[in-house]
Amino acid sequence: MTAMPNIPDMKFALDAAQAPRPPAHAMNAERAKQTAQDFEAQFLSQMIGYMFEGIKTDGLFGGGNGEEMFRSMMFDEFGKTLARAGGIGLADAVQREILKAQEA
Question: 37, 82, 85, 99: which has the fewest C-beta neighbours closer than 10 Å?
Answer without folding.
Answer: 85
